[in-house]
């Protein structure tokens, strides 16, 4: 007659729900991706990502400080250079925008938060691909590794605690690890983009970094149809020395995240990408959903699926909400 099991009992009050919550979302779990634009005199809004800007060196410092104040676990820096070329030299140059910004942030913040750098060429090449091209115009895997290795060393020298190879070249983690070790940066870690899919959800990011890409990245990023392939990428990255592994995008790939988390013996990150941000911002701007609730729900779901660390453009704001729950 009466149900013998009543799960609703534990949902009856906020205190009961708090007591039995299985997943924790804390500011320390969140990493803020930021953009710095060479030569910018004031922050440049990114139209497709309301609330996100391309920073000046100065506004970047301030926003990084505010994010740390809010308790975020780290900051991931992307550079938007003034000049691009075929091999992305500005990414390797210590005076290039990303390396200068990393040095600024490291001298300002020291070890107060984990400073991460995007270790990829697409922001720096005039063709917009994540690697250098061969004579036929195809992305040349092994020639790209040489540039990634130099880039990682430059970023480590500038002050990055973790470098984040996001280009999905075969062997990128191993090549970077070796170069960092040889250069004496044995304490600088690698946040490997392990399972990165060729996704439509990167759309707004292309505006964020003024990407020059025509075509697509399907010869190096993964097919959304695949999950087993991500476990293969995971084995390779772990064998090559990845310190953390990442799945990207997050929300449409929670099954991949779960699988990677079950198989990884290192911390797992997930990247809630630009399109995931813009979708919720656009819907919220129309009054179609509750922004704060939707954001926290997605972040919690990403944690629940197995992410130890979540990269999100809402990181600083969400950290503020979490410190002061309403
Ligand atoms: C490539 C890179 C991309 C993103 C992060 N690193 C773009 C791409 O692969 O096309 C996307 C991040 C986002 O959409 O928020 N270096």
Q: Could you explain how this protein is built, in words?
A:
With 326 residues, the chain is α/β, with parallel strands linked by helices. The protein has one domain: TIM Barrel (Alpha-Beta Barrel). 40% of the residues lie in helices and 15% in strands. It has helices spanning 14-20, 57-69, 89-92, 97-109, 141-158, 172-182, 203-208, 228-240, 254-263, 274-285, 291-305, 315-323, and strands spanning 30-37, 44-45, 53-55, 74-80, 114-119, 162-165, 189-196, 244-248, 268-271, 309-311. An 8-stranded parallel beta barrel has the order 1-4-5-6-7-8-9-10, surrounded by 8 helices. Strand 5, helix 5 and strand 6 form a beta-alpha-beta unit. Helix 4 runs parallel beside helix 5 and helix 5 (141-158) crosses helix 6 (172-182). The longest helix is centred in the middle third of the chain and has 18 residues, at 141-158. The radius of gyration is 20 Å and the shape is globular. It starts with 13 loop residues before the first helix and ends with a helix. The relative contact order is 0.14. The model has no long low-confidence stretch (mean pLDDT 97). It binds ligand PBG.
Write the layout of secondary structure elements.
Elements: H1 14-20, E1 30-37, E2 44-45, E3 53-55, H2 57-69, E4 74-80, H3 89-92, H4 97-109, E5 114-119, H5 141-158, E6 162-165, H6 172-182, E7 189-196, H7 203-208, H8 228-240, E8 244-248, H9 254-263, E9 268-271, H10 274-285, H11 291-305, E10 309-311, H12 315-323
Parallel strand pairs: 1-3, 1-4, 1-10, 4-5, 5-6, 6-7, 7-8, 8-9, 9-10
Antiparallel strand pairs: 2-3
């Amino acid at each position: 007659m009466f149900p013998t099991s009543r799960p609703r009992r534990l949902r009856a009050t906020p205190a009961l729900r708090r007591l039995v919550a299985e997943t924790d979302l804390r500011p320390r779990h969140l990493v803020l991706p930021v953009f710095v634009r060479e030569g910018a005199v004031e922050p440049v809004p990114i139209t497709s990502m309301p609330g996100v800007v391309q920073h000046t060196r100065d506004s970047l410092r301030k926003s990084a400080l505010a994010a740390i104040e809010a308790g975020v676990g780290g900051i991931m820096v992307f550079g938007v250079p003034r000049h691009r070329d075929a091999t992305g030299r500005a990414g390797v140059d210590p005076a290039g925008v990303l390396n200068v910004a990393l040095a600024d942030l490291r001298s300002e913040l020291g070890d107060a938060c984990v400073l991460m750098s995007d270790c990829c060429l697409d922001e720096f090449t005039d063709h917009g691909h994540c690697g250098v091209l061969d004579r036929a115009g195809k992305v040349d895997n092994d020639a790209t590794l040489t540039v990634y290795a130099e880039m990682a060393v430059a970023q480590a020298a500038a002050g990055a605690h973790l470098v984040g190879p996001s280009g999905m070249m075969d062997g990128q983690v191993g090549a970077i690890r070796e170069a960092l070790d040889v250069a004496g940066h044995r304490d600088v870690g690698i946040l490997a983009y392990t399972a990165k899919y060729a996704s439509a959800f990167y759309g707004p990011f292309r505006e964020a970094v003024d990407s020059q890409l025509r075509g697509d990245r399907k010869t190096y990023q993964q097919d959304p149809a695949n999950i087993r392939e991500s476990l293969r990428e995971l084995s390779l990255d772990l064998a090559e020395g990845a310190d953390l592994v990442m799945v990207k995008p997050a929300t449409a790939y929670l099954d991949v995240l779960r699988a990677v988390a079950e198989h990884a013996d290192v911390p797992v990150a997930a990247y809630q990408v630009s399109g995931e941000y813009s979708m919720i911002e656009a819907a919220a701007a129309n009054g179609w959903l509750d922004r704060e609730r939707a954001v926290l729900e997605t972040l919690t779901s990403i944690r629940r699926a197995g992410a130890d660390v979540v990269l999100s453009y809402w990181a600083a704001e969400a950290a503020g909400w979490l410190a002061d729950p309403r």
